[in-house]
Amino acid sequence: LCTQDRNGEACYEAGRSWYEGRGIPKPNPIQALNLYTAGCSFGFAPACMAGATMIIRAQGGFLILQPKGTLSLDFGEAARLVRIACDLKEFAGCGLFGDLMIDPEGMLPNNSTVVRNLQRDGLAARQAYVEGCPDPDKMDTLKSGPADVRSCLRLAQMYEEGSGGLVKDLDSAV
To answer: What angle do CA 49, 61, 63 make, to 5 degrees?
Structure first.
């Protein structure tokens, strides 16, 4: 029903029900991820974040590689979802996108998982951190939530190190 109505919030709530097993015989993470993805495509940022989180935590969006049974996580899809959340002014999505662009392997849940469908990109990370940590004087807080602490911290680190295409600038890092 949520997909017919193109209602992102309804898809998100349905996804939560499937994820938690509320009102159904047992949880179904595949159905939950599908509903979160639909909710994201209909412009509901919490659905984007929930879907990406499931993928990053190896709760959906994975392939089992043979013969060792290694999990291959589709971090490309996770990045796509959090990029949409960032575009929707869910600033935590900006920080998560940046982290995926800089160190996806550092976000793997364990040593028996690998990243799939994602290329590192320091410039894309920097741009996401800038979006996630907007200048408070230029921010319209009625249209967006507070800045993302992760984005602000990572952006300061980039200024401090001179990484992500930024010139080392300790004044900007503060």
So the answer is: 160
What span, in angstroms and rounded, lies between the C-alpha atoms of 168 and 151?
A: 17
Buried b (16+ CB within 10 A) or exposed e, 120-151: ebeebbbbbbbbbbbeeeebeeeeeeebbebb
pLDDT digits (tens, 9 = 90+) for 15-60: 999 999 999 889 999 999 999 999 999 999 999 999 999 999 999 8
pLDDT digits (tens, 9 = 90+) for 65-89: 866 778 889 999 999 999 999 999 9
* Pairing relationship of beta strands 70-74 and 62-65 according to DSSP bridges: antiparallel
Distance CA 48, CA 33 (A): 10
**Residue length, the chain?**
174
Question: How far apart (Å, rounded) are the C-alpha atoms in residues 38 and 83?
Answer: 15
Q: d(Cα 32, Cα 59) in Å, to the nearest integer?
A: 10
Peptide bond into 67 cis (omega under 30): yes
Give every CB contact of residue 35 below 8 A, 6+ residues apart in sequence: 2, 11, 12, 14, 15, 18, 47
* Structure token pair of residue 39: 């909710």
**For the CA atoms of 50, 66, 116, 36, what is the dihedral angle to 10 degrees?**
-20
